[in-house]
Structure formats: C-alpha cells, structure tokens
Specification:
The structure holds 2 protein chains of 2 kinds.
Chain A: E1 5-16, E2 19-30, E3 34-38, H1 45-53, E4 60-65, E5 68-69, E6 80-83, H2 95-104, H3 114-127, H4 143-156, E7 161-165, H5 173-190, E8 194-198, H6 201-207, E9 210-215, E10 218-223, H7 225-230, H8 235-240, E11 245-252, E12 255-258, E13 261-266, E14 273-279, E15 284-287, E16 294-304, E17 307-313, E18 319-324, E19 335-340, E20 344-347
Parallel strand pairs in A: 3-8, 3-9, 6-7, 7-8
Antiparallel strand pairs in A: 1-2, 1-4, 4-5, 9-10, 11-12, 11-14, 12-13, 14-20, 15-19, 16-17, 16-19, 17-18
Chain B: H1 2-7, H2 14-50, H3 54-60, H4 65-98, H5 104-116, H6 119-130, H7 137-142, H8 151-162, H9 164-177, H10 180-187, H11 192-221, H12 224-230, H13 240-249, H14 253-285
Helix pairs in contact in B: 2-14, 4-8, 4-9, 4-11, 6-8, 6-12, 8-11, 8-12, 9-11, 10-11, 11-14, 13-14
Classes of the chains: A alpha+beta, B mainly alpha.
Bound molecules: adenosine-5'-triphosphate and magnesium ion (MG).
Adenosine-5'-triphosphate (ATP) binds at residues 16-17, 19, 21, 39, 41-47, 199 of chain A.
C-alpha cells in the first residue's frame, strides 16, 4: 500500500468569479507520504486543498481517491481530516467533545459505544500529549494547544488523508518549530497520508517527504526537498526556496561566463546567449580582484545565527547578500571582489 | 464622579475635566428628569390608576369574558408569530451570512422594511390585499375564508411587524462567526442538519433568545397594524392592547389600566431578562471583537 497513489488530482481548473485560481493542475499523492504544498500567497494552495476535501468544487478536472472518482463526492463521504489555519474548534464544547465530534456524528449503526469513544479520545489526547486537558474549553488553551486538539479531532475519524492548511501559520516562531517536529513524529507513528500547505519554505523542506511548488495556480515542480533544492526546474522555484542573487551571464557551449570570466556553473544543453545566473548567498566567496566575477563595496555586515552576512553594493546599483562563516567583520565602504562557486542558470 | 476624576491621567488638562464635569452633570440631570417625566411617571401612573379602587376592582378587570378572550387571542397570536419569525429569521440569516448569492442586499433591505414602515400602513397593506374590496378579497369570500377582521389577519399583521427582530440580530452574529466551524463539522462526517444543530445553533443560542424576547414583547404589544385589521369585535378580534383602548374609551379607567398593567409588567420582565442577557452573554449576543 505504501508508495502507491492515494490521491490523484487530474487537470484541475477553478475560476472564482472571473479570476482563474487553478490552471490545469495535476498532482499525485502517494500513500503514507507527507506532501508539502508550497507557494506564495494567492497561488491557490488553499483552493486546491479545499477541492480535495470537497469543501469546494472544480470547474474542470477530477479528484481520484485510490480507484474511486471522488470529484462529486460530498465532503462527508470523503473521509478527509481537515485542519484549519485558525483551528475552527467548537467553542462551546469541551476538548473531549471536540475530539469525539466525528465519532458522535456517525449514524447509530456505525457509532462506537460511549466507552469506546472515551477510550479513543484518551488515546488521542495521549498522542498529542494533552492528557489532562479533556474537560477544558478551547478558550482556555494556547494557540499551539488548540491546533493540537484540532489535529486530534481530525485524526479521530481515521481519515484516509489528512489535509492541513497552514496549521502553524498563526503561531509564533518557537512554537512553530516545536510543532513541526512534533507533526513529523506523529506522521512517522501513524503513517497517515498527509498534505500540508505552507508558504514557509523552511517548514516545507524540513518536514515533508516531497514538496509541490505552486505558483499562480500552476504546479511548478514536485519532488523531494533535495530534488527541488538541487535541481529547481525554474527561476520561480529557485527564488521561492530561498534568498538568491541574480546575475546577468552569457551561456555558450555548456559554459557560463559572468563579466567575461568562466564560472563553475554548467548551462543546460541548448541554452545559449544572454541568461540569468542565480546563486545562494553561501555560493559566493570573497576573492582577489583578478579572479572575481562581481565587484562592489561593502555596505554593511551583520551576524545572523552564527554566520556572517555581508551586503555588497554593486556598481549597477543592485545589492547582493553574501554569507561567509569565517570572515571578520568588514568595514563599510571597502571594495571587494566576489567569486561564484555554484548556481543555476535559466533563460533571461 | 470625583473618583473618576482622580483616576484620570495627569496630562489631561484640568480645565477640560472641570468644564466637562459641569456639562456632564447638567446633561445627566436633564436625562434623568426627562426619563422621570416621560417614562417612570407614566409607568407608575398605570399601576396607581390600576389599583385606584383596590385589589378587588383590579382583579375584577380580569374576571370578565372579554378580557379572557383578549388574553387568549394575544397569547395565540404570539404563539404563532414568534415561532414563525424564529424559524424564518434563522433561515434567512443562515442564508445571508453563510452563502453568496445574487439579490442578497435586496433581501437584507426587505427584511428591514417592517421597521421603516408605519404599523398602520402595514395593517392597511393586508386590508388592501385580503379585504372584501381587496386584491384577492372576492376570491376569499367565494371560498368562505375570512382573513381581515378575523384572527388570521391579526396573526399576519403581527408576523409582518415583528419580522425583522430575529434576522437583524442574527445576521451580523452569524457573519462574524463565519463558516469555519461548520466546515470542520462537515469534514468530520456530520450532515448539514447535524452540523446546524450541534455547531451553529449553540453558537447563536443567546443571541437567538435575546431576539425572541424582543420579538415576543412586540408581538404581544403591537397596536397599530393589528388595530387596522382587527375590526375591534369584542370577545373575538380584540388583543390586549385593543382591549385596553376599548375600556379606556368607555371611561372604565380602572379596568383599562389594570389590563394595561399586564402589558407594562410584560415590558418590565422583558427589560429585566434583556439586561440580564446583555450583562451575562454580551459577546454571544452581538457581533463583537471577542474572538478565540
Ligand atoms: N471564495 C473566493 N471567492 C473569490 N476569490 C477567491 C475565493 N477564494 C480564493 N479566491 C482567490 O483565489 C486566489 C487563490 O486563493 P487561495 O486562498 O487558494 O491562495 P493561497 O495559496 O492559499 O494563499 P495564502 O498563502 O495567502 O493562504 C486568490 O487570488 C484569492 O483571492
Ligand atoms: Mg491559504
């Protein structure tokens, strides 16, 4: 079962009023994987998730669960667990009643006994490490605790897929980090197929088995975190995955030159002429003038998480950020040369 | 007031405070005198007049067939109009708050209409439609259906006049609450009806109770619209307010004020309960900044 296709999204299109939000989007979700949907604000992530859940319906295209066409299946019959950005806990119910909601909502014939429900709620509270909280009300919990309850509530109905829409979006940085790790643990323990929306690239790369990068309603790339980082298929993906430096370059015969000087970056076959070279801050190095690709003067430098970041003003007016681990603080105004160690090129 | 003044931050200019204090005191005094003159005094008069000839005379006003009939009709009218408007109000606010559709603004305006139309006009509308000279009057006569000058007309007019109470209260409340909780319930397998019962309704219960209270007070106290469609047939189409008027016009002051005291009592009880709800459940009654 693991590794087979759990959900297939086929040629999905969706238009709100006049604005096209999803364009012919196709995507496979494998059973048991944790897939991150990553994309800038407004790229259609929530819309896609809601269509998979059955909270919205597409104009064209299909949603297939396993072998079953679920495109027109009502939300109640899809057996998805949905976790909302703002928790959407039932305010007037205790934590235990919130978690038991899905079980209590079943028809009498399918409903577990009271004792069984109580046991399941207890197990889930253990799983989310909130055992003593059964009788509290949502207003008496912190944001992180509320989101854990929301997750337990979704897991209680044993969904075939768990859909999380920016589950940690409303929480502060430290809580986010803890919950990320915790979610990964829960996923490893339960093996639950999970799709997880975020616009935080670190979150996506750290947490997921695969990342799907969305941009303006299209799927740009899908792959493991390593694949999308090492071999981004477009400048959009590359730029979205982290800070980049953009440099004009010339490609010829598989080689790329900046300012007439050869770089170690390889051009894909067929890419010839003026191109854009993209490098990460740590893919640049200070160098002597005669072997530098770029020149500029130091604008400022600061330390961030143990690494030195130096802003360099280039003569054309652009500022690039360089990251170095062992340089001493450079005085502002000092002329420097930069050498490109690695990067990617795409047509300009 | 001196306590409040000392609590004010220092940088507040003293002159502004004293001047404000003077003006404020004056305004409060005016308001209190005004309230005493126009509200408390008349209300007290109702009870004084009602008991002018003692308990026995007071009670006698209710030991009378016409009074019984008026009380019964008022209760029946409220018992039909209030549940009807409750259901309609919940349905309308649900539709308006949770769905997008064409003509939504028109619907909101229409719901408000009874508040902006004079009750007499509301009554006249029904006469013009259902009366013997009215739009479908002849057809009704042919089929022996009596609406105007009968109980159905009174109920219809009351429903019309009390139409906006529930919907107006609930629309902003439901809009503020959004659809996320309902959507969560649906993804957990709940049917629409189950989600409504277990999620939506508990979330609006205090606002609903509040609006039903006001709706009921108005339904029992409505005079204008009901007066037009009732025909004032003693023992048949008189509600309590109409009964009060008739007794008064017959110079039967004690009985008139005794019956009026019943309505005044209803108003006081409603006011009390309303204040209690406002004090206890302010956040659940009106759309407000309270969020989780
Ligand atoms: N109900 C709606 N009616 C009209 N337009 C909508 C609706 N829902 C979403 N949109 C539009 O669709 C586009 C995509 O929205 P969506 O919520 O899917 O983006 P997103 O990727 O989740 O963004 P974010 O990261 O900000 O949550 C946006 O431009 C949005 O304005
Ligand atoms: Mg979103």
């Amino acid at each position: 079962m693991k590794g087979s296709t759990a959900i297939r999204v086929e040629n999905l299109s969706k238009t709100f009023d006049t604005a096209a939000v999803l364009h012919d989007l196709s995507l496979d979700v494998r059973a048991g994987e944790l897939l991150a949907l990553l994309g800038p604000s407004g790229s259609g992530k929530t819309t896609l998730l809601r269509i998979i859940a059955g909270l919205d319906f597409p104009d064209r295209g299909r949603i297939v669960f396993g072998a079953e066409d679920a495109t027109r299946l009502p939300v109640q019959q899809r057996a998805v667990g949905f976790v909302f950005q703002h928790y959407a806990l039932f305010k007037h119910m205790s934590v235990a009643d919130n978690i038991a909601y899905g079980l209590n909502a079943r028809k009498r014939a399918d409903r577990p006994s009271k004792v069984e429900i109580k046991r399941r709620v207890g197990d889930l509270l253990d799983l989310i490490k909130l055992s003593g909280f059964a009788d509290r009300y949502p207003s008496q919990l912190s944001g992180g605790q509320r989101q854990r309850i929301a997750l337990a509530r979704a897991l209680a109905v044993e969904p075939r897929v768990l859909l999380l829409d920016e589950p940690f979006g409303a929480l502060d940085a430290q809580v986010r980090k803890d919950l990320r790790r915790w979610l990964r643990e829960i996923h490893d323990r339960t093996g639950q197929t999970t799709i997880f929306v975020t616009h935080d690239q670190d979150e996506a790369l750290e947490l997921s088995d695969r990342v799907a990068v969305l941009s303006r309603g299209r799927l740009e790339q899908i792959g493991t975190p390593d694949e999308v980082q090492e071999a981004p298929v477009s400048a959009t993906v590359l730029k979205f995955l982290g800070d980049t430096i953009e440099v004009e370059a010339i490609a010829q015969g598989g080689q790329v030159r900046v300012d007439g000087r050869l770089t170690p970056v390889a051009a894909p076959p067929g890419l010839v002429g003026p191109v854009k070279l993209y490098a990460r801050p740590w893919q640049l190095q200070f160098a002597e003038s005669h072997e530098a690709h770029l020149h500029g003067t130091v604008r400022s430098s600061y330390r961030s998480q143990g690494r030195q970041r130096i802003e360099v003003d280039r003569p054309e007016g652009k500022t690039v950020v360089v990251e170095a681990s062992d340089t001493a603080r450079l005085p502002a105004g000092r002329p420097v040369g930069l050498r490109i160690l690695a990067g990617h090129v795409f047509a300009g | 007031m001196s306590e409040i003044a000392t609590d004010l931050p220092r940088q507040q200019p003293a002159s502004v405070v004293t001047e404000g204090g003077l003006v404020r005191g004056l305004l409060i005094a005016v308001a209190i005198v005004f309230l005493a003159l126009f509200l408390v005094l008349p209300l007290a008069t109702v009870f004084v007049q009602a008991f002018a000839k003692g308990w026995d005379a007071y009670l006698a006003a209710f030991h009378e067939a016409d009074a019984h009939a008026a009380i019964r009709l008022t209760l029946i009218t409220a018992a039909i109009a209030v549940p009807f408007n409750l259901v309609f109000g919940v349905v309308a606010s649900w539709a308006i708050a949770k769905f997008e559709f064409r003509g939504k603004n028109l619907l909101i305006t229409l719901i408000d209409l009874p508040f902006s139309v004079s009750p007499v006009v509301s009554g006249l509308i029904y006469v013009l439609v259902f009366g013997s000279q009215g739009l479908i009057g002849p057809w009704l006569i042919e089929h022996d259906i009596q609406i105007i000058f009968a109980v159905p007309g009174i109920v219809l007019a009351t429903i019309f006049v009390t139409f906006p109470f529930v919907a107006r209260q609930l629309i902003p409340l439901m809009q503020e609450q959004g659809t996320a909780e309902e959507e969560a319930a649906l993804t957990l397998g709940a049917s629409g009806w189950h989600a409504f019962r277990t999620v939506t309704l508990p979330n609006i219960r205090w606002g609903l109770l509040y609006s039903v209270l006001l709706c009921n007070a108005r339904a029992m106290g409505e005079f204008g619209a009901v007066s037009v469609v009732s025909g004032h047939i003693r023992g048949l189409t008189n509600t309590l307010p109409l009964h009060v008027e008739i007794l008064y016009n017959e110079y039967n002051f004690v009985a008139s004020f005794a019956v009026a005291s019943l309505l005044a009592g209803l108003a006081l009880v409603t006011l009390g309960l309303k204040s209690l709800l406002e004090w206890r459940y302010a956040g659940d009654i009106a759309a407000s900044g309270r969020r989780h």
